[in-house]
Design a protein that fits this description.
Layout lengths: L9 E5 L9 H10 L6 E5 L1 H10 L4 H9 L9 H6 L1 H5 L1 H4 L1 E2 L7 E2 L1 H7 L15 E7 L5 E4 L4 H8 L9 E3 L2 E5 L16 E5 L12 H23 L4 E3 L14 H23 L5
Parallel strand pairs: 1-2, 1-9, 2-5, 9-10
Antiparallel strand pairs: 3-4, 5-6, 5-8, 7-8
Helix pairs in contact: 1-3, 1-10
Length: 281
């Protein structure tokens, strides 16, 4: 009698990092290459956006193509740029000034024009099990959102204090999940194999100006936060691209963030292959 062998449960944690977080896409493409389907995805901030897109059924390649539609690539012919103009103009509608207290920008356009798959659906409509991390503004408790309306959970997970307004949900006022748990690999307790993607890299050695020091301070807080999580619950595989020199809101470096992910993808591919098939060097 043939014995049934169950497939390992693979958990995936995607950290926050704004534009840096687009480096996650290269790792998602490697998972697709190996035909790996996570049993659960959990993400914070940009990790929550990409995790939800992936859980909705978009492949890593499809997500990358969506992003590339909205940027100009090196060497791109004028004819191609002209044909792409409708996509490029959507950036003007992605972020608008917020009418709500607590934030200066509104991100509604991001999901209306770029990532429309996440609008008007619930968690139960996703193809994969997914949760988004947020933080309770009044208690500093981390909150894992995994049911009900999806978009409000994503907006809460990415509600960077002072930039995007807090989100009221389930009687709680919620802000960016990264303020407490930026790399939620500890939220995958039922996984046989935990994969985490951390896109935060500290600034290179330099004497920063005041504005840059403030931005770099955020990376320091997130790095300390992440180290604590990794020490408490080490992932089995860590995807760690070098995103130094790319700031959280540096939308002029989207292409570079994607490239940094690709640079790390080969190392991750080898590590993943060694775990899946130890007979292969």
């Amino acid at each position: 009698m043939q014995q049934h062998v169950s497939q390992p449960r693979i958990g995936l944690a995607l950290g926050g990092g704004g534009v840096k977080g687009l480096a996650h896409i290269a790792m998602l493409k490697v998972l697709d290459e190996f035909k790996i389907t996570p049993s659960k995805i959990v993400g914070s901030s940009m990790g929550a956006i990409l995790g939800a897109l992936y859980a909705s059924g978009l492949s890593g390649q499809a997500i990358e193509q969506r992003v590339k539609q909205h940027i100009i690539l090196p060497g791109q012919a004028f004819k191609d740029i002209f044909q792409q103009r409708k996509h490029l103009l959507k950036w003007a509608k992605v972020f608008s000034f917020s009418q709500h207290r607590g934030g200066i920008l509104a991100a509604d356009g991001l999901f209306e024009h770029l990532f429309f798959e996440l609008r008007d659906i619930d968690f139960k409509d996703l193809n994969l099990r997914f949760s988004a991390m947020a933080t309770d503004y009044h208690t500093a408790e981390e909150v894992e959102l995994d049911s009900g309306e999806l978009l409000s959970a994503i907006l809460a997970s990415m509600a960077i204090p002072g930039v995007f307004a807090p989100v009221k949900r389930d009687q709680r006022l919620l802000i960016d999940g990264g303020t407490v748990n930026n790399l939620p690999c500890d939220r995958l307790p039922d996984s046989d194999l935990r994969i985490a993607s951390d896109v935060i890299t500290l600034a290179p050695s330099r004497e920063p100006k005041a504005s840059q020091a403030l931005i770099d301070a955020v990376s320091i807080v997130l790095t300390h936060n992440t180290r604590q999580r990794i020490n408490a619950c080490p992932p089995d595989l860590l995807f760690k691209p070098d995103t130094s020199g790319i700031d959280v809101f540096d939308f002029l470096k989207i292409r570079e963030a994607l490239a940094r992910g690709e640079e790390e993808a080969e190392t991750f591919r080898k590590r993943l292959r060694s775990v899946i098939d130890p007979q292969i060097d």
